[in-house]
Amino acid sequence: MNQSVTSDDSNPSQASASTNNSVSTAGAGKNTASKKRFRISLFWKILGWFWLSMVIIITINLFVGYINGGKIHYRPLPPPLENELRKITNKTQNLFDGFRRINRSPRKRQWEIYLLDEQGQEFSNKTYPELLADLHSRVRRHKQPLVAFQRKQAFFGGSLIQIKEKNYWLYSRQRAPLINRHLVESFFRDIAKSILFSIFILSFPVSFLLSWLITGPIRRLQQTTRKMRHDLSNREDLEKLMRRRDEFGELATDFDNLANHLSHTLDSQKQLLSDVSHELRSPLARLKIALGMAENQATSATQDNLSRIKLECDRMNDMLSNLLTLSKLEAQEMSSEKETFDLCQIFQTVIEDGRFEAEQSNTEIQVDIPALCQFHGVKDPLISGIENILRNAIRYAGDNGLIKCSLHQQNDSITLSISDNGPGVPQAQLDKIFDAFYRPDLDRARNSGGVGLGLSIAKRSFALNGGVISAENLEPSGLKVTVKFST
Fold it and tell me: Is 436 in a helix, a strand, or coil?
């Protein structure tokens, strides 16, 4: 069974039992953190894109200049061209062996071939481009067939045939596309080892600077928002950003205006809460005086009604006290001077005070507290926080209930916990019970008179002492509230 618990007191509602699952006061923030996916910083994204874009643009410009530079590129014959050259050579040799002239080849000539002798004279006295002459010279020096390409023209060959006992070297023209695989390979072989590597290294500082200029203000704005989360007046970094004369400066100005509006709204809300609480105290005091006079003159028929009125006045008085305490905690008006004291003694004192209330419902309180635990913090808020948690546990443990109070110190941390065997809290609402005025049950626990302030006050009281509060359901039933302090 789950216990529907309000911040200070509420009527428990029945729900199915839940497994143990600790929920911190961060609430939904912790659930969101547990679902975080792999994150890449915006800085590295921008750096990567800038760097890659610069390298690609410079590489393309170099490649365009490379293919338009008029340089002749030589490469060994790849296997497809070797096979094609072998076919051309065999067919040409067969033609001459059959006493056919090469210039009387079939109408649909498959290849445009050239036959050059040792002096570079073409067999049929055809003219040929300078590219072929350079290729012929290189083939004779290397004594192996090659391919040569320049811009849109290419020749390959260098196989030796004999015509009338005279040696000739056979070549074929191949129309090369503007960009081909051989040209790309040649570019990266000639350029990447020298210029391109230097460009890759030299472009990194430029990309790094551009990325830093963009993400730097964003990072400072993020740091400022984190500081303002705890103190809206902490805007030193924001004021520096506001001096910029660009979009980041305008964004910082808009953010500062929003923070001012939010600060003013929160201050007005806190002031209103404090003023209303104070103003209600006077008519409530007069009502109690009138109630006391009425009780002296009451008959047995009206005594029950007056008792009910007195109960409601006491509840209203408690609510106003809680509101004032919450207002002071939020405004940090409560004494913040820290001192060193024995936390075990304070905890034990609060438990002893709570035993009187627990005895009314025959509730047992078990204690597991060491003899001494030195703590440096603000005493009064700490006492108030422990009292609210213990009272909440006593209220929902019910008749003949069981409450366990423990305190343990380990290394640089102190853990304080209070658990009960009540119905517990619906699992989906565990992260909200520390919010002010939150009431998980649908009828808002009117019978208990609570308004959902007790655990909210406890949360803020422990926060002033660096404590983090969380809650979890117990098996088979019950609720455990844990506070962890870093010493």
Answer: coil
Listed in sequence order, the residues at least 6 apart from 174 whose beta carbon sits closer than 8 Å to its beta carbon are 147, 154, 155, 156
Tokens of 457: 């006050």
Output the DSSP codes for 220-281: HHHHHHHHHHH-TT--HHHHHHHT-SSHHHHHHHHHHHHHHHHHHHHHHHHHHHHHHHHHHH
Give kind and range of the element (H or E) at residue 458: helix 454-463
CB–CB of 33/198 below 8 Å? Answer: no
**Separation CA 441–CA 429 (nearest Å):** 10
**367: number of Cβ within 10 Å:** 14
Mean pLDDT of the chain: 76
The whole-number pLDDT of residue 112 equals 83
Answer for the pair 161, 89: CB distance below 8 angstroms, yes or no: yes
- Environment class of 446 (CB within 10 Å of its CB; exposed 0-12, middle 13-18, buried 19+): exposed
Whether the bond between 476 and the residue before it is cis, its omega within 30 degrees of 0, is: yes
Euclidean distance between CA atoms 161 and 169, whole angstroms: 6
* Residue whose tokens read 């103003």: 279
pLDDT of 193 strictly over 70: no
pLDDT of residue 194: 64
Backbone angles phi, psi at 254, to 5 degrees: -65, -40
Q: For the segment 135-168, what is each residue's pLDDT rounded down to a tens digit? A: 999 999 988 999 887 766 788 899 988 888 889 9
Which is higher by pLDDT, 418 or 40?
Answer: 418
DSSP 51-74: HHHHHHHHHHHHHHHHHTS---EE
Domain residue ranges in the chain: 23-34+336-486
For 43-61, b/e burial (b = at least 16 CB within 10 A) is beebbeebbeebbeebbee
Cα–Cα dist 147/166, whole Å: 24
Q: Which CATH class is domain 23-34+336-486?
A: alpha beta
Least confident of 208-212, 226-230, 392-396: 226-230
pLDDT of residue 441: 56
d(CA 477, CA 473): 7
